[in-house]
Write the structure tokens for this entry.
Amino acid sequence: MRVLVHEVGFLRSNSYVVYDEASREAVLIDAGDDAWLMLESIHDNRLKLQAIYATHCHFDHVLAVDDLKQAVRVPFYIHRDDLEVLAMGKEMTRRFLGIDVPDPPAPDGFVEEGQTIQIGSSTLKVIHTPGHSPGSVCYYGEGVLFSGDTLFQGSVGRTDAPGGNAEQLVKSIVEKLFKLPDDVKVYPGHGPETTIGWERRHNPFVGENGYLRRRP
Ligand SMILES: [Zn+2]
Ligand SMILES: [Zn+2]
């Protein structure tokens, strides 16, 4: 399994092209903006895009979906619990950021906890990690975790947007993500990559001595 990282849009979210080297089958994890970048990357690497998966439905992770779907006819999948977040995106973006974004894309189907995604001979598993949003998910396989806005290098996702829940976020990370092996490489929704081991020990919010874990 190979991973190509694209940092897109003015919120600098990461869009990941994940592909199987032998079959050239590929999926996109988050399509935040700048569809042309992903299309170029798919074309240049001779990849066959199968689907687009969202880690969650904040606009900075789904803004390029419609443009991509117009160029390559592939289905778009989200977790059902983020339907409301997806629908609210336009209004929230105007309220919090003062900008207008297009209507959100319509999902073609849903992912759920434990489901597996086949990319050629590679497999990713869906881990439901509510907290940053109710339908936040991570995708895990072959020593790699796509953590969306749940876990960042040295930080965690905000929980102050509608549907966010700090308690759930900590629980999702500690009980699900931190159970993964130390050397799992984490590709977050924003910023540089990290590892499960480093975050479990040193993350200032959810690590061993993390601020959010010491609160009563
Ligand atoms: Zn987000
Ligand atoms: Zn984000």
Notes: The CA atoms of residues 56 and 136 lie 5 Å apart. Residues 2-214 form a domain with the Metallo-beta-lactamase; Chain A fold (CATH 3.60.15.10).
